[in-house]
Design goal:
two-stranded antiparallel ribbon; 22 helices
């Protein structure tokens, strides 16, 4: 098929999906465009690459000024929106104090970073990840906002990825470091493609299940068609991406959603703990002993030894095991160069491949390199708190809570072989959204002061208590 014809069909198809998936109510805020733009860029490729811009300078250290400007504008508008919603924003921030402490320590760690200016810029982008989660959670209809946001981003990225792979190979296909072909779609590598497809497709599957159960939903038939087509794109792309970690995460997330919403577990929510632990242990074990995407990505045979070689090289070279190298700083230090040399001389990796190594391919080790054991403890607190909040949300609303639990577990699982907690990573963004969203389900407040919610009045509502008023109150932003 001619590329112009294929592109036209793809464009009309995307428009058709938007038309079919529209719903009458509830109405969401225009501010939802902000996380849509943010996730759309993070889940694909930088804006400068979309426009074919060639930037001068050390992009690995400085980044693209154009991309920085785009993210800066989106972030500033997002902060303005959250200031307008200060009451609800303050409640969620105070309730999620482990996240605040983690980001505060990241800011403090800039003081011992090799390049403080670069670290601060990256920290500002990290704040953007949290801001997007807050915009979704503080919307006047947060569940509808999250559902529509993910669906809209998926309708743009997934069909376009298939178009790029099938008909625009220069844009949608590439080669690994060892010369093997890979499908990248709208992203820059197969692992990025697998990740964005996984996080979107899990919500699409959840949407379909919800529509099947709620037969009174508006435009149910048309929306089922749209979501079914989008689900088909997701399945096809998960196969095309050839990312075993993301496939495993999708299976785990699907199991969590479908198992925890059965009456056996909704009547006795405490059973969810055993299910989550069993799924995580079984999935983690099978991934750890049977999959090695990291080694393959580095030009090695697919074996566990490739991954452990990287870990053995970087862990001893951490500048300070207690506080690390500073936020997003390790790979710009002399210690990182020593680790690369070890991989070349002692492990036999290709210098061309190792020269581009910019992550440990393990989220927990990556945090250790950047923030030391302090960072590990803080990220552990975020995960544990996130799971507790997601479980409380599950007790109140099993359908929504099961999805939040799925994202917390899969983020924990994904980071076994990939740096899933890094800035502007879809896994990290969806983890923050799940944690903050869970809090918005379970956090209550008893008093207001000058129109703002008193943060000191936050309580954890029992499952029988009515939802907080901000889930339905009008919003001008």
């Amino acid at each position: 098929m001619n590329t112009l014809v294929a592109s036209a069909i793809c464009a009309f198809g995307i428009a058709g999906l938007f038309y079919l998936d529209r719903e009458k109510a509830p109405r969401v805020s225009w501010a939802l465009w902000l996380p849509g733009i943010w996730i759309g860029i993070v889940g694909s490729r930088p804006v400068s690459q979309w426009f074919g811009m060639q930037q001068a300078g050390n992009l690995g250290l400085d980044g693209s000024p154009f991309d920085a400007a785009v993210f800066g504008v989106v972030l500033m508008i997002s902060i303005g929106v959250l200031i307008r919603r200060l009451g609800r924003t303050r409640v969620l921030l105070v309730a999620n104090w482990p996240i605040l402490i983690y980001f505060l320590f990241c800011l403090v760690s800039i003081m011992w970073s090799t390049h403080p200016d670069v670290s601060f810029k990256r920290w500002a982008k990290a704040i953007g990840d949290l801001a997007m989660a807050l915009i979704i959670a503080t919307d006047k209809a947060p569940v509808a906002a999250f559902r529509r946001l993910v669906s809209r981003v998926g309708m743009l990225l997934l069909p376009t990825s298939v178009l790029f792979i099938k008909y625009l190979g220069d844009l949608g296909r590439g080669y690994t470091s060892d010369g093997l072909p890979m499908n990248t779609g709208v992203t820059t590598n197969k692992n990025s493609l697998g990740l964005i497809v996984f996080v979107i497709t899990l919500v699409v599957l959840w949407n379909i299940r919800s529509l099947m159960l709620h037969k009174d939903a508006s435009n149910r038939g048309r929306r089922l068609i749209a979501q079914g087509i989008l689900l088909a794109f997701g399945f096809v792309l998960l196969v095309m991406a050839q990312c075993s970690t993301c496939k495993a995460c999708f299976v785990i997330g699907t199991l969590v959603v479908f198992i925890l919403t059965r009456r056996t577990f909704t009547k006795r929510p405490a059973r969810a703990h055993a299910v989550c632990l069993a799924i995580l242990l079984l999935g983690g074990g099978s991934l750890f002993f049977g999959q090695a995407d990291v080694a393959s990505a580095l030009g090695r045979q697919s074996s566990l030894s490739g991954r452990t070689d990287i870990w053995n090289a970087v862990i001893p070279n951490v500048p300070n095991p207690i506080i690390g190298a500073g936020f997003e700083s390790f790979w710009n230090t002399v210690n990182a160069e020593k680790a690369r040399n070890m991989l070349v001389h002692d492990a036999g990796f290709s210098p061309l491949v190792i020269g581009g190594l910019q992550e440990a391919h393990d989220g927990y080790i990556e945090i250790y390199l950047q923030l030391g054991w302090t960072g590990i403890c803080l990220i552990g607190a975020v995960i544990i708190t996130g799971y507790i909040r997601a479980y409380k949300a599950y007790r109140r609303d099993p359908e929504l809570g099961s999805l939040f639990i799925a994202y917390v577990l899969t983020a924990t699982f994904y980071s076994i072989t990939e740096a899933g907690f890094r800035t502007m990573n879809p896994s990290w963004i969806f983890l923050l959204t799940a944690v903050v969203g869970s809090t918005s389900v379970t956090a209550g407040f008893l008093g207001r002061k000058k129109g703002r919610i008193a943060a000191s009045k936050i309580i954890e509502l029992s499952p029988e208590t009515t939802l907080p008023t901000f889930w339905s109150e009008p919003d001008t932003v």
